[in-house]
UniProtKB/TrEMBL annotation:
Name by which UniProt lists this protein: Protein-export membrane protein SecG
Record's keyword terms, sorted: Cell membrane, Membrane, Protein transport, Translocation, Transmembrane, Transmembrane helix, Transport
UniProt keyword annotation of Ribonucleoprotein present: no
A Pfam family this chain is assigned to: SecG
Domain of life: Bacteria
Topology term for the membrane: Multi-pass membrane protein
Gene Ontology cellular-component annotations: plasma membrane
Similarity comment text for this entry: Belongs to the SecG family.
Example of a GO MF term: protein-transporting ATPase activity
Function, in words: Involved in protein export. Participates in an early event of protein translocation.
Annotated signal sequence range: none
Amino acid sequence: MEFLVTVLPWIQIILSIILTTTIILQQTGAGVGGAFGGGDDSIRYTRRGMEKVLFYISIIVAILFTLSAFTMLVIQR
């Protein structure tokens, strides 16, 4: 149990960095240029390629982050 209390905050930090990165990269342009303001002005309603992968990764990481937060709450009691 002590191991989990020690390791879980680090896991949450890593997951939060990954989640933030994937969300930033999902901006319209779906690349490093799009994340910092560059990108085209075309509007697309479907996700393709890397944008779709980033979308699914962000969902999975968000779920893992939420589960780790709830786990930390249960352990702290």
